[in-house]
Sequence to fold (115 residues):
Amino acid sequence: MQTQINSEWTTICKKNELSPNAGTCAQFKNQQVAIFFCKRSDNIYAVANFDPFGQANVMSRGMMGSTEGKTYVASPLYKQRFDLRTGQCFESAEHSLKTYAVRVANENVQLKEVS
Fold:
């Protein structure tokens, strides 16, 4: 995927390049980011690809799910679940994933750092 920078937003890929209900790994400002497209809600989420428990860049390979109205990704290594909106770990309050702002402009998926 080719990355294009436009103001604060960075184009990562086309929306139609994302697999529904699955993760994709992308490079964003020298960081690995896991991008998830939830087909049911038509939402796209972006979180850090680094699993704080397994100490590896694997979150994009995690399984998506939902519980109590919260969409999450479960780590493929030790199965901890992380809220895709907030990055907060359901099983361990002291752990979270960095999240990124996401928008779709002209079918381009774009990311921006969250303050």
User: Anything to note?
Assistant: The CA atoms of residues 50 and 57 lie 4 Å apart.
